[in-house]
Amino acid sequence: MTTLCTHQPAWQALQAHYQSIQQQHLRDWFAADPARGTEFTEAACGLYLDYSKNRISRETMTLLVDLADQSGLRQRIDAMFRGDKINITEDRAVLHVALRAPRGASILVDGENVVPDVHAVLDQMAAFAGKLRDRTWRGHTGLPIKTIVNIGIGGSDLGPVMAYEALRHYSDRGLQFRFVSNIDGSDFSEAVHDLNPAETLFIVASKTFTTQETLTNAHSARTWCLAILKDEAAIAKHFVAVSTNATEVAKFGIDTANMFGFWDWVGGRYSFDSAIGLSLMIAIGPDNYRDMLAGFHAMDEHFRTAPFDHNLPVILGLLGVWYNNFFGAETHAVLPYDHYLGRFSAYLQQLDMESNGKRTTLDGQKIDYQTGPVVWGTPGTNGQHAYYQLIHQGTKLIPCDFIAFCRSLNPVGIHHDLLTANCFAQTEALAFGKTADEVRADGVAEALVPHRTFDGNHPTNTILVEQLTPYVLGTLVALYEHKVFVQGTIWQVNSFDQWGVELGKVLAKKIAPELDAGHAAALKHDSSTNQLINLYREKKRK
Ligand code: F6P
What we know:
Strand order of the largest sheet: 1-2-13-12-10-11
Helix content: 40-55%
Distance between the termini: 58 Å
Radius of gyration: 25 Å
Number of strands: 13
Structural class: alpha/beta
Bound molecules: 6-O-phosphono-beta-D-fructofuranose
């Protein structure tokens, strides 16, 4: 049995250290050290990280880095990049880093270099994307394709849609992109209601090609298409697949010549820079896509080589552990001050929560400490008018990452300065608050002073970047991928399986036929589930 993280000497030291500093205020730390705002910073791959507004001293960082060392982080990083099968419950390597390795690099899985295969698929994607972008790919009736609909869910949806939204500025505006994920028929119906099948291409994106939601939506798309085009031969022009499962793709009726492959060593939530990103490549073009991969790769190299105390994903990961396990913070907010990053936090939810929402160690021990936090957030400034009240004056400690850009892609009047002013103001207000005396000095009536006082001392990171580009998006996503890896290593969980989603899927398959009013067999669930099924059947008939 390996030593649990809570038994590491650094963990014990951090616990004692926490007792000694938990009452200290960011106001005092900043007053005592005028250089704090420049000292607790780090820059790499075009990202500037200011982590000075955290409840940490130099000693905290030293102890956290000790924890990383004692947890074997260096060995785990090397094992991942080497292609070791670190996803032990599925006996797989974890090599999303190979997806962005430059042509000519060598990464071995079972003795075979996988990089040439990665580039072969990228070239195949680029050739196909080129035909859609120059309108030479024609539909069954000879019309060019106007709309691309990505059908997928989880990692086969959240990454593509997040990245398409993020890089929409760079996209071909003559093409429309839509994303269908939910098994709710309304999702599919709304996505296609104004489309002409003769001008529509469906990308069915599914690593396994067995996912109920995706297959159900794909079959509905097929029916919708054939209802108008009335010829099976049309499928070849209007459906392509992205998958690791050629057998199931062929069974669905998609010619495997129109399939873009990837590999079992790419986890679903780590996959949007594989062929799963086909819709994105069509939108922004192969050159921009490759710039994005270069951004990913730059961050991979930074993560692999930088000393831990200068390593952005390691710093963010360790700070997360600090609040999660020592301050008892249960959630973590990611707040991008950029409209294009509207889906970034939703994407991070799967990345983080499906990876580290675990309670068993790699060697099967039951965990008795906190692991992955609840991750959430929406773009600034909308959140300020919704839930920031709770972050400022509520009873919970919510560490936040703020992400801001120096130049807008849409410089309209003074919008961008105002947006950024709000971002910086929030981190300042959260850190320093407003004391009762400061409130009184504003002439506020004594009865209102407690209500208008801000305790402050709320920790934040600020990531400041010049401008949102494909390269920058790659660095940001890789930053969070590796942050999740750091935390999973410390918590000793397998960040690359997701057995927790299975039970619900199995039960849904059992319940689906029981919802049919004609289902004869007696229901054998608990009394609550039986009653819900009965009521549904009854009301459905009306
Ligand atoms: O159910 C969870 C999950 O397996 C995710 O991990 C994955 O991203 C998603 O389903 C979709 O899976 P697939 O790409 O195989 O359809």
